[in-house]
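Question: Hello, beginner here. Any chance you could explain the protein record under this note? Any guidance would be welcome.
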Amino acid sequence: MNMKAHGQSFASRGLSALITSGISLALCLGQAGKEPKESKPTILFVCEHGAAKSVIAAAYFDKLAKQRNLNYKAAFRGVNPDAELNAAAAKGLKEDGIDIAGWKPALVAKKDVDDASRVVTLGCTLPPGISKASKVTDWNNVPSPSQDYEYARDNIKKRVQELVDDLAREKESAEGKKR
């Protein structure tokens, strides 16, 4: 009986060690190849309602930056956000072949501005208490997408293209200095 008790004790200790080893191995293997993801610098677009102009700018920025192989992402916010995207902007972007599923206006926060590499306001003023650093640019006189989507889109797209071109030049200049 003593040997049986000793045998059970040994077996349960062995099983315990085996389980612990298995868990440790699984944790190690689970971490293999999971390097910390580099977060892309963000370009933040802000308009009054976060539902049209900033949405179009963010959509085209992501598209054009990807085409130029730039490591940036766009975000859009509103000073007084609507509950949902502007119907004209949503319809136009879908017709342009841009997937905006799940996109929803959100209130701009101090953290959004602080975390962004650059901030572009589209004819609105950032709320009090949100720092206005030199990284903030205002695009005034952007036409309303509700009145004429194509005209507004083309105006925004032209400005976004200029921004992407500037970022590409900065990237090339930085790469040239590294060599």
User: Anything to note?
Assistant: Residues 42-178 form a domain with the Rossmann fold fold (CATH 3.40.50.2300). The helical segments are 2-31, 53-67, 87-95, 110-115, 149-178.
